[in-house]
Write a structure and sequence with these properties.
This protein is an alpha/beta fold. The chain has helices at about 10-25, 35-45, 60-70, 85-95, 105-130, 130-140, 150-160, 175-185, 210-215, 230-235, 250-260, 285-290, 300-305, 320-335, 345-350, 360-375, 385-400, 415-430, 435-445, 445-455, and strands at about 5-10, 30, 50-55, 75-80, 100, 140, 145, 165-170, 195-200, 215, 225-230, 240, 265, 270-275, 280-285, 305-310, 340-345, 380. The strands form 6 sheets. Strands 2-1-3-4-5 form a 5-stranded parallel β-sheet, sandwiched between helices. The protein has a 5-stranded parallel β-sheet with strand order 9-12-15-8-16. Strands 6-7 form a two-stranded antiparallel ribbon.
Length: about 450
């Protein structure tokens, strides 16, 4: 069914542009030149989405928003303006606006925001029908994500939790491997027993054996008393070997027996110690390559890797960013005693453009900083403490080699061209110390064309 849209703007050229652009997307579009006309039309027709400027000359966009929500609370309202303050944008969202989009906007981004808003309208209806099921699909213990790949991981956790089978969790740093290990433990029959994480890369080489297996008094200089090892402390529970690929070959040899037989001997000891432990390991390395390179024992690898759970990087599950961001907002708002309660959908779109090399951990840090610095109860794009991330992203684009073979899997040509254009504009400004006339000359375009491109890509400042 075609969505019914109302565009409200006192600039004729803007109304016509939006009508043309949105009609081509398959929407039924109606126009109002001022707030009075918009309120009148809203009184007669139920719209799926209202796109309204904030400054209209008579009634304001906030008046249009209130009228639309009073007529039908399910109507999605998006505010646009070149002059609105942060306070005005926050007020609009607090009164029910889906989002605020600053002018000049990128046409493709606005179309995507509208599509996301209409999709969320459908999801809201589904949520009302199955609130419990939807929440369960997003949150699994301490893990957050509703993407198909995360749902697959949740299913694997449920399947392996009841067994004693060794599990190897692989994935980049910051993807949440320890959370998955804890979920396996918490869903097992060992849930009320110890969960002992061991950071294999964070223990000095001279102390690794003692930390794992314990030691006897006098076994080495400084061993003034007996000490229980972490494997023994985990008896009847679960041991989590984080970054197991960092262990040295000699330590791998000693660990192999403990993994195979659940038996080991303390440093300086003469008797074997038997333990009942579940072993879960994790690594950000490709252990197959480490085995080939002679840096990891093949027999230990196969003992640890009975079942492998691969955790995708955040860039491969960007649909989870919205849920993760909201989760961290709630977490840090509570910790800091602040009232930040949501993040703008337009801000989420901005986050989705960044690849997050530090994965979920990096997103969490970003949201924590943003909440700490926010003066409003909603995180807008300007509220995101991500300037360093923007610079890193732009620098990555400048050095990026675009592979035309990717076309076979499907690409967005508009996005690729926009990335290239943005990178060249910024580089030209850097080379000329901000002189726009000289930058335009370097790029072989007119000054007017240069200014237009800056406006289009929101680079004017």
């Amino acid at each position: 069914m075609t969505a019914n849209l109302l565009v409200v703007d006192d600039e004729r050229s803007m109304r016509e542009l939006l009508e043309y652009m949105l009609s081509r997307e398959g929407y039924h579009v109606e126009l109002a030149e001022n707030g009075v006309k918009a309120v009148e039309m809203i009184g007669k027709t139920i719209y799926d989405l209202v796109l309204s400027d904030i400054r209209l000359g008579d009634l304001t966009g906030l008046d249009v928003l209130r009228a639309a929500k009073q007529k039908n609370p399910n109507t999605v309202v998006i505010m646009i303006s070149a002059f609105a303050s942060t306070e005005t944008a926050v007020e609009a969202m607090n009164e029910g606006a889906y989002d605020y989009v600053p002018k000049p906007f990128d046409n493709e981004e606005l179309k995507q925001t509208i599509a996301n808003a209409l999709e969320r309208k459908t999801e809201t209806t589904d949520q009302q029908l199955g609130e419990g099921e939807l929440k369960e699909s997003v949150h699994f213990d301490r893990i957050v994500g509703s993407s198909p790949r995360m749902q697959h991981i949740y299913q694997m956790v449920r399947q392996v939790a009841k067994t004693r089978t060794n599990v190897l969790i692989t994935g980049e740093s910051g993807t949440g491997k320890e959370l998955i290990a804890r979920a396996i433990h918490d869903h097992s029959d060992r849930a009320d027993k110890p969960f002992i994480p061991i950071n294999c890369g964070g223990i000095p080489e001279t102390l690794v054996e003692s930390e794992f297996f314990g030691h006897k008094k006098g076994s080495f200089t400084g061993a003034t008393q007996d000490k229980m090892g972490l494997l023994e402390a985990a008896h009847s529970g679960t041991v989590f070997l984080d970054e197991v690929g960092e262990l040295s070959i000699p330590m791998q040899v000693k660990l192999l027996r403990a993994v195979q037989e659940r038996v080991f001997r303390a440093v300086g000891g003469t008797r074997d110690v038997s333990v009942d432990i579940r072993i879960i390991s994790a690594t950000n390395k490709r252990l197959e390559d480490e085995v080939i390179g002679g840096r990891f024992r093949e027999d230990l690898f196969y003992r640890l890797n009975v079942i492998e759970i691969k955790v995708p990087p955040l860039r491969e599950r960007k649909t989870d960013i919205k849920h993760l961001a909201q989760h961290f907002i709630e977490k840090y708002s509570k910790e800091m005693g602040k009232e930040v309660n949501k993040v703008s959908a337009y801000a989420i779109d901005l986050l989705k453009k960044y690849d997050f090399p530090g994965n979920v951990r990096e997103l969490e840090n970003l949201i924590e900083r943003s909440v700490a610095l926010s003066n409003t109860n909603i995180l807008l794009p300007d509220s995101l403490a991500m300037s360093i991330h923007k610079r890193r992203w732009i620098e990555g684009i400048q050095n990026k080699r675009f592979d035309v073979d990717e076309v076979a899997q499907g690409v967005s040509l508009d996005d690729i061209l926009a990335e290239i254009e943005r990178a060249y504009l910024k580089k030209a400004l850097e080379c000329t110390n901000g002189n726009k006339n000289k930058a335009a000359d370097l790029l072989g375009i007119t000054f007017r064309s240069f200014r237009y491109r800056l406006d289009k890509l929101n680079l004017e400042d």
